[in-house]
From TrEMBL:
<dbReference type="InterPro" id="IPR000536">
    <property type="entry name" value="Nucl_hrmn_rcpt_lig-bd"/>
</dbReference>
<dbReference type="GO" id="GO:0005634">
    <property type="term" value="C:nucleus"/>
</dbReference>
<dbReference type="GO" id="GO:0008270">
    <property type="term" value="F:zinc ion binding"/>
</dbReference>
<dbReference type="Pfam" id="PF00105">
    <property type="entry name" value="zf-C4"/>
</dbReference>
<dbReference type="InterPro" id="IPR049636">
    <property type="entry name" value="HNF4-like_DBD"/>
</dbReference>
<keyword id="KW-0539">Nucleus</keyword>
<keyword id="KW-0238">DNA-binding</keyword>
<feature type="compositionally biased region" description="Basic residues">
    <location>
        <begin position="17"/>
        <end position="26"/>
    </location>
</feature>
<dbReference type="InterPro" id="IPR050274">
    <property type="entry name" value="Nuclear_hormone_rcpt_NR2"/>
</dbReference>
<dbReference type="GO" id="GO:0000978">
    <property type="term" value="F:RNA polymerase II cis-regulatory region sequence-specific DNA binding"/>
</dbReference>
<dbReference type="InterPro" id="IPR013088">
    <property type="entry name" value="Znf_NHR/GATA"/>
</dbReference>
<feature type="compositionally biased region" description="Polar residues">
    <location>
        <begin position="1"/>
        <end position="14"/>
    </location>
</feature>
<protein>
    <submittedName>
        <fullName>Uncharacterized protein</fullName>
    </submittedName>
</protein>
<keyword id="KW-0675">Receptor</keyword>
<keyword id="KW-0863">Zinc-finger</keyword>
<keyword id="KW-0805">Transcription regulation</keyword>
<dbReference type="GO" id="GO:0042594">
    <property type="term" value="P:response to starvation"/>
</dbReference>
Length: 416
């Protein structure tokens, strides 16, 4: 037989064997989002990818492979804790090889993922020994939480919350009905995600006939949008840890803010519009006030091309505001812990999307939207107080001392 034919046949068999082994071992598929990791789990320096089942740099990858292939016995001259308390190793200094191998195994590096055969009996024995302890290594590896894991969990949770409140946000309170609950009652009740499940939703027996009746349409949609923001707050971790007074103070400040952000992103992303729209697709009437004022948040989202994840993270940051007046000191600390975690997720996401060079500046751009959104909320509250005073005076002129159709929580939030 031709030697070249034999050679090609042998090469084909080897390549098929390698391909089969690669199909069996794809631990990186189980890691979050299958993205390039930020740092090596062994030494803490920048990683270049997933090697042998764990995020690692090139140096740790080569070290692990060499030790497994040669099977050389390594002993720590100290107490097997040379890496204790060190997050990032100085690679310019001499590193304990035994502790480095121990760390490789702890973070999940798999000896079977190495395609090269052991070149000695010691190498084969070492590989067999490591595989016998595979179960305990897997347990240790599962307990290690990386920045990628935290980001993935945060995004999943925020997306779930948004999915749950979206029907409530879009529904709108039925025309002619009023929600007689106060904010305290809403916050103290279980999560309500459907308009039909709202208790004490009453029909206005004598609807107000003064002024422009079309004003009730934005009020109906705004109230359901407010409810969506309030109900979403109950699904954050801090909600079950702070007292009712702190919840009320927080939501009086953040409800309008989060509602505006939902309205803006809905118009931009769902309706593909560069102007603010109601959930039914209709435009805001000029009679509802200064339309430009109501669209500041939308314009800031459009100008900065805010994506879905950035929107969710920024809204969560605005929700978790420990600086709101009326929140006690202990509750401030609780809220601040959750906010810091979300801020860290925003930084991680920006670094993944825009790289180490442009990631931090993208975080600054997103956080710079906060004052714009806050100012819109403040101006809306001022405008609402003006409208209510004007409307009440019209009632007085007609000899009517009671406003007929009102939602207490809606007015309570806007008059705070």
């Amino acid at each position: 037989m031709n030697p070249s034919t034999l050679s090609s046949k042998k090469t084909g068999q080897v390549s098929k064997s390698k391909l089969r082994r690669r199909k069996q071992l794809k631990p990186y598929k189980e890691l979050p989002q299958n993205q390039t990791p930020s740092k090596c789990r062994v030494c803490g320096n920048p990683a270049i990818g997933y090697h042998y089942g764990a995020p690692s740099c090139n140096g740790c990858k080569i070290f692990f492979r060499r030790v497994i292939v040669t099977g050389r016995k390594i002993v720590c001259p100290k107490d097997n804790n040379c890496f204790y308390g060190i997050e990032v190793l100085d690679m310019s200094k001499r590193i304990c090889r035994a502790c480095r191998l121990k760390k490789c195994l702890e973070v999940g590096m798999n000896a079977l993922a190495i395609e090269a055969e052991a070149i000695s009996d010691e190498g084969k024995a070492l590989r067999d020994e490591l595989m016998r302890g595979k179960d305990s290594i897997a347990v240790v590896s599962s307990l290690i939480v990386t920045e990628e894991d935290l980001l993935d969990r945060t995004i999943r949770k925020l997306k779930l919350i948004e999915t749950k409140i979206e029907p409530l946000h879009r529904a709108g309170v039925p025309p002619g009905y009023r929600d007689v609950r106060h904010l305290e009652k809403i916050l103290d009740a279980p999560v309500t995600l459907n308009i039909s499940d709202i208790p004490n939703l009453k029909l206005c027996s004598h609807p107000c006939t003064l002024g422009n009746s079309t004003y009730r349409k934005p009020v109906n949609y705004a109230h359901s949008s407010f409810l969506a923001a309030i109900e979403s707050s109950k699904m954050f971790d801090f909600s079950s840890k702070i007292d009712l007074d702190s919840k009320v103070a927080l939501m009086k400040h953040t409800t309008v803010i989060c509602s505006n952000m939902m309205n803006a992103y809905f118009s931009m992303n769902e309706m593909k519009s560069d102007v603010l729209l109601y959930p039914d697709g209709s435009h805001i009437e000029p009679s509802t006030g200064d339309v430009k004022l109501l669209q500041k948040t939308l314009f800031s989202f459009l100008n900065n091309k805010v994506d879905n994840i950035e929107y969710l993270l920024l809204k969560a940051i605005m929700m978790c505001n420990p600086a709101v007046h009326g929140i006690n000191l202990e509750d401030q600390k609780t809220i601040e812990i959750e906010r810091n975690r979300i801020m860290k997720s925003l930084l991680s996401y920006s670094l993944f999307q825009h790289g180490n060079l442009h990631g931090p500046s993208r975080v600054a751009e997103i956080l710079a939207l906060a004052p714009i959104i806050e100012n819109q909320s403040k101006h809306q509250k001022d405008f609402h107080v003006y409208l209510n005073a004007k409307h009440f005076q019209e009632h007085l002129n007609q000899g009517q001392l009671v406003r007929k159709c009102i939602s207490y929580s809606y007015d309570g939030i806007l008059e705070s």
